[in-house]
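Hi W.,

Here's what went into the run:
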Amino acid sequence: MEKLLKKRNGKIKLTLRGKEAIAGYLFALPALIGFFCFFLPMVIESVSFSLHNMEVTADGYVLTPAAKGGLEHYIRAFTIDPEFNQMLLEAIKNMCINVPLIIIFSFFAANLLNQKFAGRAIARSIFFFPVILTSGIVLGLESSDLLVQAASEAEMNSDEIASFLNMARFLREYTNLPAGVIGFLSNAVNGIYDIIIASGVQILIFLAGLQSISSSLYEASNMEGATGWENFWKITFPMISPLILVNSIYTIIDTFTNETNEMMSAIKTTIFSDVKYGYGSAMAWIYFLAIGVIVLIVGGLISRKVFYYDER
Amino acid sequence: MEKMKKRHRRMTPARVANGTWKVIRGVIIIGICFIILQPLFFKMSAAVMSETDLYDSSVKYIPKNFTLDNFKMAIKGMELKTTMLRTFLLSGGVSVLQLMACLLTAYGFARFRFPGRKLLFGCILFTMIVPPQIIMLPMFMFYRFFDLLGIPSAVSGSSVNLINTAWPYVIQAVTCTGFKNGLYIYMLRQFFKGMPRELDEAAFVDGCGKFRTFVQIMLPSAVPMMITVFLFGFVWQWTDNFYASLYLPTTKVMATSLGSLAASVYSQYESFGGSMNFISPGFASMMNNTGVIITILPLIVLYLICQRHFIEGIERSGIVG
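Here's what came out:
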């Protein structure tokens, strides 16, 4: 780091670098205030709630330390609550299935949308449309709506489609893939709608990445006689790999914090309907730590393979 | 020329493969578009059906008894005029404020070197990873017993209750702690990083201050990106019912009134001259579909207006850098 201050004529003055630093802090001020005055204290408070029992009084609240050295709520979540472990595992399992599918689909879709064809502008607007459709209450209503569910089930059950869609049975009969792979594939086919509507932002990020790859790379490789297939694996894929990392992490967080996620609604009910503040906070923190560990593992694994064009 | 044309028509294997791919691509794209739009068509048709059509299995998409009663009931049940105006002001205000705050922050992180920059940017990204649900209780408590730096209690003797006001939203927007603000800062920072430094330097040589450079040189070229962030912020705010149910428990905004639409129409049902003993699932679902259509209609209009800039913004964002 260069010097921020200098001495001239016995007075301490800012150097050019020092002025730049001050300007930087000033510009970033909104977020810095937000983080240190609002966000961080709230995070700390939330941890302390999870270690205490809380009583709400007329003008404030009283905290008393929870039993077992403050860890009562955490212990209870793992050993006493019959549903917590199951919900946690379920959430992790769903994530493991959905995240790769969403990434693959959105990468594929972004590649499609990046090609030239008639009606591309319309197709793009429709592909980004789920960003609107899947936000907040609209998605929440969708998943609880009886009629929509009934309709989609009816479609699935009508004869012609069923025989086509019942891929699991088909695969089991005609191939000898392991059961896990068959389950994964049939999940992908049956959940195609959920996957498509969860991919809006990811497609967007991938598309932006594809657009920013310099066309001179492709020109040079075409000149050398490379095929489209080679171009894809040798140019597109490495250049886009940092975004696979970004998208994976975004998707993991998005699926975990989704409105329709059972765990999230369980935490909300525990806190606001059952009025168990301490226990709800403990549940939330266990859940967040689980997310954090998964994000770290996935991030670590992917970032080892990520290729950076110019190291900065 | 003549020769060229002839060669153009010849069926080489590469040409066949290319044509086949075009057909397959078309089918895939149309299929995906259909999957995305189908629920919307379904909702549209359910919204203009009468309830008897709903149970009639011969009715698929085209209703036998076309009616606009659902819309009338839903509009009344949602108190549409006031609710929509309120939501519009709230969403518009919040997204403009957070856009400004995020722009400033993003520019600061993109252009200036200062001690601890990487760590602080890590902190910003951290806010993106922590789901708001985790800190919702402290957030509620903070604004319920609002006492920033002890000023309110020094003035009026006790803490102030900011629940059911727009203040929590404003404070969150101005300090970049609102919904997905980390993502916006990240997107904007990537954009500003991609702007050539020569621009700043030229402005500096011409005696332009740092803030003025930002406003007069950086912002005009960031317009597509700003529209993108504004659109995201507006849409997510419009349909958000997490913060709405937390901060505005008794004030109706679009998202919360949509959630309770079937129940509130049911309670007013007699004023429509009908009688109902219970909320049938079909009726609830019809109301939901109608409500969703009403709710997302303004968003679709906004999306179509911004669409060109939106896609341009994405193309130029260069998030990859």
